[in-house]
Design a protein that fits this description.
By secondary structure, the protein is of the alpha+beta class. Helix content is 25%, strand content 33%. The model has no long low-confidence stretch (mean pLDDT 87).
Length: 118
Amino acid sequence: MEADVPLEWNAEECRTYTPADMDREMQYRTYLHESGDLRLKVAPASLDGEDHPGYSLTATSYPGLDLSETMRVRTVLTFERCNRIARDFMDLFSASYDGPGSLEEALDYAYERTREHR
C-alpha cells in the first residue's frame, strides 16, 4: 500500500488488473478517512458507467450507511494524475474537517478546490 497519504487517511484497497477487452493494466484504489465518514475512490471512469477514458475521483460520505452519498469530483486521463488530485483532496478535507458536524463543509471545501473548472 502507498505510504504517502496524510496521517488522517488510510489506503483501504489497491488493485491492478487487466480488463478482458484491453491490453493495458488498470488501477483501482480507495482511501478511508480515520473517522470512517469519507471514502475516496480513484478508479477507471468506465467503472462508474462513464463513457470517458481515464480515471475518476469520487467521494462517498458516510460509506456503508443508508444515508451515504457519492459525488464525482473529477475525471482525468491518467491514474497518477487522479491519485495526485486525491491526495490534494485529502489534505484539503483534513485541514477543514472537525468532526461529524462539519463533514459537509469540509467536503464542499475540498471539492471546490479540486474539481474541474469550466
